[in-house]
Amino acid sequence: MGANAFEQAAWFENQPDGVVYAGKTVYQYKGGDGAATVQLKEGTRAIGAQAFSDCSFLTEIMLLDGIENIQSAAFANCNNLEKVSFPATLTNIESSAFLNCEKLTNLQFPDSLHTVGGQAFAKTACLESQPDGLVYAGTVA
């Protein structure tokens, strides 16, 4: 499913403010300024493309076990994001997922992480250590 696929659709407009899900995937954060810390519901499998992009209020996100994929630009331009807790089940972080998250300085990557897309962490200061099982990192990861 593409980013903003349901923008201005009746289904999306009728969703309450907060985290909007499409099945087991976080589709988008809806509403104005939200909580500084967001915790997702049990059973979530993926964070959709641009789901939280430009959420400047967000300072911390807790990703639960079961999440395997963070899609492209999911948290791009979250300029106040300081802390992300990655689950042991995470295998893939797509391109530009955390692009321009300048306050993101320290991450603990799970051993399950297998691929990181290009520019996933561009313009952050968080790539001090990488998991042993990482087999691909795109340019300027």
UniProtKB/TrEMBL annotation:
SUPFAM superfamilies, alphabetized: L domain-like (SSF52058)
Coiled coil: none
One Pfam family this sequence matches: LRR_5
Name this protein carries in UniProt: Leucine-rich repeat domain-containing protein
Protein source organism: Candidatus Scatavimonas merdigallinarum
